[in-house]
Design brief:
Elements lengths: L6 E5 L12 H7 L4 E4 L11 H14 L2 E6 L18 H20 L3 E3 L11 H21 L3 E5 L14 H15 L4 E6 H6 L4 H8 L3 E6 L15 H10 L5 E4 L24
Parallel strand pairs: 1-2, 1-8, 2-3, 3-4, 4-5, 5-6, 6-7, 7-8
Length: 279
């Protein structure tokens, strides 16, 4: 099966970044893709003007691309931050201000998955205090996602690149998923399974897939080492995606890799064009 039996989408916050944001959906469509995902595009504000939200919606609609994943406000990302929701003070406030803005935008474009990055540990703050704040904010976010018929995603990152992020294993992220679902009773918190991050942590990927596919709401891939396109590193991504499929995963697979020194449109040769359009 390999890559033939998957629903792929392109992450427009790591690919096509050589273009302005509003030109990226059309570029993804020109490369053959019909589904895309985004980190929160306005890193400087959790509450952009409605005109900016409208312009992004128009760009997605005009390109014929479906937004299938959106991050809540996550601070400076790309950059030093790894989320805002567990960071006391201004960043937590900014996350809260963003919740309904992000959910309403997702609803306007039919996006059914919202990713909430946990945030880094802060010097001088008790981790338990951060975790309590995180749960409060995640409960609000889960309810907002539920309001629009969406799931809330909790992502594990990797320790080498995100040493201050506390969720650097699949079990750590699953624990938060369970905590949120227990607090809300909604059951709409899910695991974002990123094969690159988990491989960087040295986790047993077949075991993670076997144990957690049923609680996985979204998958992202990049090869390792290098976070490049499939085939540029050592991961058997085709085999791992086969395992996911056999374990019952039918969701999206986000391409969250770096194109390297070439234009993004040239980084998809591993995936035959007919397989890029979401079926």
């Amino acid at each position: 099966m390999g890559y033939t039996d998957q629903r792929f989408n392109v992450n427009l916050s790591i690919l096509f970044t050589e273009l302005p944001l509003l030109e990226r959906p059309a570029a993804a469509a020109a490369a053959g893709f019909t589904a895309v995902e985004l980190w929160w595009p306005w890193i400087e504000t959790p509450t952009p003007d409605q005109s900016e939200l409208d312009a992004l919606k128009k760009a997605l609609d005009d390109a014929g691309t479906q937004l299938v994943g959106l991050n809540f406000y996550a601070g400076q990302l790309p950059g030093p931050d790894r989320g805002a929701l567990s960071v006391p003070g201004e960043e937590s406030d900014r996350f809260r201000a963003n919740i309904d803005v992000a959910a309403d935008f997702a609803a306007s474009v039919g996006c059914k998955a919202l990713n909430a990055l946990y945030g880094n540990r802060v010097d001088g703050v008790d981790p338990a205090v951060q975790d309590e704040l995180a749960l409060e904010n995640l409960v609000i976010a889960a309810r907002a996602a539920d309001r629009i018929g969406a799931i809330l995603l909790i992502e594990a990152l990797n320790k080498p690149e995100s040493p201050r992020y506390p969720l650097v294993s699949a079990p750590a992220a699953i624990e938060v998923v369970d905590r949120v679902n227990a607090a809300t009773g909604l059951g709409n918190a899910k695991f974002l399974l990123d094969l690159y991050h988990l491989s960087m942590n040295g986790e047993d990927l077949p075991e993670v897939i076997e144990k957690y596919t049923a609680r996985t709401g979204h998958v992202q891939i990049a090869d390792n080492p290098g976070r490049g396109a499939p085939g540029t590193g050592d991961l058997d991504l085709a085999g791992l995606l086969d395992r996911l499929k056999k374990a019952g995963y039918e969701g999206w697979v986000g391409l969250e890799y770096k194109a390297g020194d070439r234009p993004s449109a040239e980084s998809f040769e591993w995936l035959p064009r007919p397989q890029r359009a979401a079926n």
